[in-house]
Amino acid sequence: MPETLPGQPVKGAFLHRFANPGRFLRLAHWLFPLLSASSGIFLTIGMIWALWFSPADWQQGDAVRIMYLHVPMAMLASGGYAALALCGVLSLVWKHPLADLAAVEIGPVGAVITGLCLVTGSLWGKPMWGAWWVWDARLTSVLVLFFLYLGHIALIQAFDDPQRGYRAAAVLAIAGVIDLPIIKFSVNWWNTLHQPDSITLTHAPTMPESMLLPLSICLTGFSLGFAALVTGRLQAAILETRAEQMLTRRARSQNGLS
Amino acid sequence: MTRKSRRLWLVLSCLACFAVASGLVLNAFSSSIVFFMAPSQILREPPAVDRVIRLGGMVVAGSLKRSLEGQTPINQFDITDGQAAIAVRYEGILPDLFREGQSVVALGTYLKGSPFSASEVLAKHDETYMPKEVADALRKSGKWDPRFGKPPSAESLDSMARHDTDAQAHR
Fold this sequence. Notes:
The structure holds 2 protein chains of 2 kinds. By secondary structure, chain A is mainly α. Chain A has 8 helices and no strands. The longest helix of chain A has 49 residues, at 209-257. In chain A, 40% of the residues are buried. By secondary structure, chain B is α+β, with helices and mostly antiparallel strands. Chain B has helices spanning 3-28, 30-33, 39-44, 132-140, 154-170, and strands at residues 53-59, 65-69, 72-80, 85-91, 103-109, 116-124. In chain B, strands 1-3-4-6-5 form a 5-stranded mixed β-barrel. The longest helix of chain B has 26 residues, at 3-28. Chain B is flat, with a radius of gyration of 24 Å. At the A-B interface, helix 3 and helix 8 of A face helix 1, strand 6, helix 4 and helix 5 of B.
């Protein structure tokens, strides 16, 4: 019979494996360079293919190339928020310490991505639709997502006690998840100026392979880049906390000696 | 029940309540969330004369008439949703994507019996993408005319274009 040491978690061991920041640091030590390098390779190939070698669209002309930036940004904006909500659940239910730190680091990256999605969409909308911005359901729900990200960043730093900030931000992240299905299905539920999705799980893509392939390579590259940014930021945050702890400990011991 | 599972159920039930609440709110507002109305909707329930509405649909093939009044271009065309059509009059320059058979959204006022007077026309593009060369080949071979109906599906498109270029090579 295996011996269980006192204080060692028996149930839910898988979840708490990475609650130990040291274990995460050892993982990130090789994961971060791997993610960054593969993201760089995918983005170089994908962007050159998308911007120079993929065909122009029959009605949009070369303006269709904005899609290779806009669509990955839009998908990652929603995906990033889903990750934020997952961190919220892990933090509220399982009190996972790394989930709080991850939420702090995912927020700004997601906000920038959502901002880029709005900006590229606006730059695309002006030549195609004839308007920079319209208040249709898709655009408005993505704007709401952008404000949810900003609210999350503000809330997590609004308290003197970081634990209370983490708690409040986790609640906001979980509540805001309602916006994700609204964004996804807004183009099917209501008449919108934004066109319906070209790539869905249930239907064949309404896009020829010559455009679909560079788009999937760009999407893979941006997703790996998102993961690399979050991993790198999380690694830096943990190391920063450790350095601070070390400095305080040294200052304290020196005070004690003198 | 452990404390962890109690917390999990609490979070899940709060989320479910919130989802139902927002679903009901969106359902209640669904008529104002709609960005545009179709011609048949407008003809069925004509809006107040001074109310600015958005009219959306396809430009009827062969209905576009352009003229000049001094320096301003006058555009007249019909918008249809397949069931009813409304004549539209718009003073100004149309967006690049505007063509017959294209989906558009026009902002303006409607008075029964006279054309819809638009102050702004937006072009809506659909979710299909097609390389320019393929579209030209399909149009030349007479397999598809953008003024009538949707372009063929992306899967059939690759093989059709290949077939066309083969046929041209044999000729």
